[in-house]
Write a structure and sequence with these properties.
about 150 residues, 3 strands, single chain, three-stranded antiparallel sheet, globular, mainly alpha
Length: about 150
Amino acid sequence: MNEYTIYDNEKQELTAFCSVCGHMETIPCTDEQMGAYTGRKKVIQSIFPDVSPDIREMLISGWCGPCFALNLMHFPQKTLDELTEYTVSIFPADFLNEGFSFRDNDDIRDFITEMEWYDGTYNDEPDFREQLGKVRTKITELADRIDRGEFE
């Protein structure tokens, strides 16, 4: 367990927080799983086999999958352009600044962090969690494509 996880014994839930952007995920967690996790007696995939790799990464390092990718790899311009086009397509036209684009990994990380803490006051929208989730998924997809050498 690290400083970015909280266990609720009563609810049998484990909540992990990304130390970079503040994203959080809560998963079911039995006392047996918690014991194995805190005791580090098994690999995380064995303890939480039904949990996504992104959430397992948060449990290990305190970084969500997109932040992990953004901190460890360079996103070429083609990926930045693809992510910009995708992001602009899923948010309301007047929500993002005119000329909105991702110029580098820091721009992406800043956008994710800002949206994680967004207070939902835009046009009475409760929040943009669904859109942000799609952007996070796209970042992970692009990172996988970079790993496979698709942008060389």
